[in-house]
Amino acid sequence: MDYKPLFSQVVSRSKASAIRELLKIISQPDIISFAGGLPDPALFPIDEIAGIMHQVVEKYPQASLQYGSTEGQEMLKKELIKLLKETEGISACAEQLLVVSASQQALDMSARVFVNPGDCIITASPTYLGALQAFQVAGADIIGAASDECGILPQDLETKLQALKALGKPCKFIYLVPDFQNPTGTTIPEKRRVEILKLAEKYGTFILEDSPYRQIRFEGTSPRTFYALDQGKGRVITMFTFSKVFVPGFRLGFIVGPEDVIRKYVILKQAMDLCTSSILQLATAMYLQGGHLKTHIEDLIASYRDKRDLMLKTLQEVMPKDVSWTHPEGGLFLWLTLPKHMDATELLHKAVENKVAYVAGVDFYPDGRAKNDMRLNFSYSTKEQIVEGLKRLAQTIKENL
User: Fold this and answer.
1) pTM higher than the cut 0.85
2) Which of 75, 144, 173, 211 has the highest CB neighbour number within 10 Å of its CB?
3) How many domains does the chain have?
4) What is the distance between the alpha carbons of residues 19 and 26, in angstroms, rounded to a whole number?
């Protein structure tokens, strides 16, 4: 049977994740990998989760094992409203929230809600690979705006918005990861966020804000979220996830936005998966009720800060002078830039031979033009692996300069 002529346009537009494909290759135990965006499993709150799962089934036997509402469990949404108010100063009602299966579903749904094939969106360049995948599947024309050490540049963003306006093409939305961006680790300062919001209003579009690890801050003060800065004008939809600040295996996140827009998301989710897991929602609600999340995040910050500091120190000690990197104030990643004549994708094969791995930066660019960058993750590896892995990586770079 030849299925090729039967595949949909969506499947034809779909591309395999460079990271997921890479993880298959580098799964050997002797390879030190900086490639994944994985939390440290040694920090998972296993005992608390085991106890809570038992309590959930004992206390809510029917609700935990039954289908739930598409919008999300009321018990969890109450905790999310409280969490947003306490941590972000965001006032939201239940109708402005939708519980989803982590932020990747939120990205997929956002593309389906807003994008028709050929529609234009703007992202930072580089930006999160998983978002590019979701938008490409929807058929979006993705335009990258240049970035610096403080994230997307408002001047280039306006240039791109002006060009679209001149062509009579609306920008459906501007996608941003403003805090400790994946892949670069950069954070957009508050003053620049205000500029970007004004541009969104000026050109009749909105900000799709992706906030997966905003709470994992090691130093400095957090700028307000785009959602908080918007002050209820409806110019921002924000996606949060518990994958990086709690456990990724729960696949749990939520979207905050205008009530009428969230309703469209709800209708779409009804056709996708009916509802997110009831038992995992209730378990997360009980975890939040017990005040465990704050303590857990404090543990994450302490551990990941030490690992980031060690990675920065080791890079300084072992890398050749023509190599540079970012200094993230939080999150899970930093961005390393090679001399312009080097190709990080070609170098990766030699790095794997030297038993170390990373993600080549080319897949994070909407146009795929930049070749000399790589993303390094510091949350997953042990301290010993960070030092040894960077020594192997530095040696690989020096051998191929």
Assistant:
1) yes
2) 173
3) 2
4) 10
